[in-house]
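Project outcomes to date are best conveyed with an example. Our students and postdoctoral researchers have been running inverse folding experiments weekly, and each run begins with a structure described purely in tokens. The record below, which covers 571 residues, was selected by the lab manager from last quarter's runs and is presented without edits.
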């Protein structure tokens, strides 16, 4: 059994190397955006493919070895737990099936010799490895061994230190990712996964572990889309509780066989989160605050469950980071916390939650200096002078050019605590995080109004199909309005400024063209056809840049930036 465990842990390391290789390949994608930079791809492709071929061979070798060892293993534990051996074989077979399917797909994939296509083909090959699912099954196999053969778990001699887990990047990212991937562990108790995760980080076994799922505790949580898990642990006499808040839904439940059901769940969950994003954060409306209400109820329940000697820590990714910061500002909820590529705090929402947090004069000053701004270190100092305190216990970690940074330029948004930015030097990544350099305040407000009206228009949609249909109808209607008003100077300027910002950010590869008579031609009834003639740059939509901005935002992509020291820290 020990030999099987050692082999499984080696394969788990290979999966981690695949994730790093995937990051390196994505990091090279901006070189494909123009011919001059693409010349640098040839040596990079050679190194990346060399790494991929090695990892793929090792993965197949270890996968086959695990299956053979799992079938052949003999242990007295099988006499008392007759289900264990079949379960281990089941996990090993699933790993083997995924590997075989990938190798079959890879052999039939057409070879692409151009430098740009080879890089994209490599990313496709890595995606086809299905690392998330494979890692889930392999982790299940390892957990089964640890749970049934605890004597195989090496334990260090020195005791656990307070906040040791909190200060571990691997622990934070794995715990946050679990809320996205927990559909992979439906056959396991959450506590089993947490015990294993803790052991991998500190090589100590917790005496006590208990999890609390917000969707099982707060009746309104699932309906409004709120998702969070709390984990209470005791290690060497130290009590800690970690509360994780999930970000905007971006995960697909591939254990659901029905494609229609998968998409329905994906769209509905995502819609609920974006409804909150728009109304609570983007606009600061007093509607659709159900997720914040659910978060407050969840925290109130958790505090009633844990003892006074238990430290409470908050962790959040994206939208989840917004909950950590807002709860800390309004209620001083946590002893400490980390966020990752967090959505900001919306001051208008904060005032609705707790009007007496500040004096009326300080509210007025705060709204004035955050209405039209780019938050510099100097402005941040002014903001902090108006807040109740500095909140240094909250650390907000960002990829310096993450798409959530845009939200910090919207009216009345701030961060709470420290802001740590990570980036690579001498790396050409075109995304612009300061739209205020391209857009006027009125144009920013129009952007907010567009999304506010979109979610008001789709409010009564009960199914994923209706959300998509209503959303498309709304977009077509707005394009018609734009076509009707295109001859107005302010409309033309609005369109050009937004187009120029998107071009500068790499979202479009061609510069926006000069407006011609096509758009206002009443004889053409097709909005889309006239738009394509009117704005040829629409055909240059850079899907690679869109995918890249999402990849560097999610945990799997952004965590690799944060393995080194931050480029800047604003306290």
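After processing, the design step wrote out the following sequence:
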């Amino acid at each position: 059994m020990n030999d099987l465990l050692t082999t499984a842990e080696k394969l788990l390391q290979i999966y981690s190397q695949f994730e790093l290789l995937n990051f390196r390949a994505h990091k090279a994608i901006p070189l494909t955006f123009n011919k001059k930079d693409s010349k640098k791809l040839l040596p990079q492709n050679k190194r990346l493919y060399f790494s991929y071929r090695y990892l793929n061979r090792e993965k197949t070798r270890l996968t086959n070895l695990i299956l053979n060892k799992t079938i052949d293993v003999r242990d007295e534990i099988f006499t008392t737990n007759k289900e264990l051996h079949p379960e281990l074989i089941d996990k090993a077979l699933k790993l083997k099936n995924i590997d075989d399917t990938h190798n079959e797909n890879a052999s039939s994939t057409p070879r692409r010799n151009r430098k740009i296509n080879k890089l994209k083909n490599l990313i496709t090959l890595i995606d086809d490895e299905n690392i998330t699912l494979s890692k889930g099954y392999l982790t299940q196999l390892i957990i089964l061994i640890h749970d049934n053969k605890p004597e195989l778990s090496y334990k260090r001699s020195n005791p656990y230190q307070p906040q040791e887990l909190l200060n571990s990047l691997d622990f934070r990212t794995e715990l946050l990712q679990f809320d996205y991937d927990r559909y992979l562990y439906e056959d396991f108790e959450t506590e089993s996964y947490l015990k294993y995760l803790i052991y991998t980080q500190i090589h100590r076994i917790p005496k006590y572990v208990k999890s609390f799922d917000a969707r099982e505790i707060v009746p309104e949580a699932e309906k409004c889309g709120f998702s969070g898990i709390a984990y209470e642990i005791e290690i060497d006499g130290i009590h800690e509780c970690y509360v994780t808040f999930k970000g905007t839904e971006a995960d697909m439940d591939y254990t659901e066989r029905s494609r229609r059901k998968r998409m329905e769940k994906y769209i509905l969950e995502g819609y609920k989160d974006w409804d909150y994003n728009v109304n609570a954060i983007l606009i600061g409306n007093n509607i659709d605050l159900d997720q914040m209400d659910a978060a407050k109820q969840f925290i109130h329940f958790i505090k009633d469950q844990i003892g006074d000697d238990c430290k409470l820590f908050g962790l959040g990714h994206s939208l989840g980071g917004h909950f950590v910061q807002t709860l800390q500002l309004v209620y001083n909820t946590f002893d400490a916390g980390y966020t990752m590529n967090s959505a900001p705090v919306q001051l208008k929402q904060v005032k609705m939650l707790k009007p007496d947090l500040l004096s009326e004069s300080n509210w007025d000053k705060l709204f004035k200096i955050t209405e039209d701004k780019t938050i510099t270190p100097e402005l941040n100092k002014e903001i902090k002078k108006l807040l109740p305190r500095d909140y240094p216990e909250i650390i907000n970690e960002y990829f310096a050019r993450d798409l959530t940074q845009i939200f910090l330029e919207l009216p009345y948004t701030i961060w709470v605590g420290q802001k740590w930015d990570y980036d690579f030097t001498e790396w050409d990544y075109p995304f612009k995080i300061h739209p205020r350099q391209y857009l006027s305040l009125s144009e920013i407000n129009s952007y907010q109004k567009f999304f506010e009206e979109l979610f008001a228009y789709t409010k009564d949609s009960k199914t994923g199909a209706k959300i998509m249909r209503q959303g498309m109808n709304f977009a077509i209607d707005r394009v018609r309005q734009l076509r009707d008003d295109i001859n107005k100077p302010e409309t033309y300027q609005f369109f050009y400024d937004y187009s120029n910002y998107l071009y500068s950010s790499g979202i479009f590869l061609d510069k926006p063209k000069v407006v011609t008579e096509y758009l206002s031609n009443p004889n053409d009834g097709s909005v889309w056809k006239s738009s394509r003639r009117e704005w040829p740059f629409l055909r240059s939509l850079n899907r690679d840049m869109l995918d890249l901005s999402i990849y560097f935002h999610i945990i799997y992509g952004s965590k690799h930036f944060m393995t080194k020291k931050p480029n800047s820290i604003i306290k």
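The two ends are 50 Å apart (CA to CA). Residues 41-72 form the longest helix (32 residues). The training component of this project remains on track.
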